[in-house]
Specification:
There is one protein chain. It contains 7 helices and no strands. By secondary structure, it is mainly alpha-helical. The protein has 2 domains: 1-43, no CATH class; 57-151, Hypothetical protein af1432.
């Protein structure tokens, strides 16, 4: 996927049509904080991903999810600073899921965080980063998993 990497400060996948996941790849490959210019370039992955899907009719329904999965409930996200229910419900759900996965998963530059810590972060950001209704549903799924684990 990223055979276009030519130097530590070259954006992975910049010549590739496969841009999904490049924000993680940037941090993993570069091993640290991005410059402002690199950060702005990395933020384009949402628009690039949406453009890749545009000609594929079967994926028309998920384009808003791809485009707006970094929008925050309070309007502080990107690319369009959407807030509240102005953002697609699928994107609001995916935002919580992506954050959960990113925090709980091991990365080359850090170990994954404990499940309860990650759930605490998501609760803390309910109403700011995350739609409170989506967080409530997420917490119910987590609680159900806990109940099923205890009963098995």
């Amino acid at each position: 996927m990223c055979d276009s990497i030519t130097s530590p400060r070259t954006l992975p996948c910049e010549d590739s049509k496969v841009h999904t996941g490049c924000h993680s790849l940037c941090l993993e490959y570069w091993g640290g904080k991005l410059t402002d210019e690199e950060y702005q370039l990395m933020r384009e992955h949402v628009r690039i991903g949406a453009r890749i899907l545009e000609p594929i009719e079967a994926y028309a329904g998920i384009i808003p999810v791809v485009l707006h999965h970094h929008e925050y409930y309070d309007g502080s996200g990107y690319p369009d600073n959407l807030s509240g229910e102005d953002n697609d419900l699928g994107a609001r759900i995916f935002t919580v899921a992506v954050h959960y996965d990113a925090l709980i998963s091991d990365r080359p530059y850090r170990a994954g965080l404990p499940r309860e810590t990650v759930i605490g972060f998501i609760k803390e950001d309910s109403g700011t980063k995350f739609d409170p209704k989506v967080v409530d549903a997420f917490l119910e799924v987590m609680a159900q998993e806990d109940r099923e684990a205890v009963s098995s």
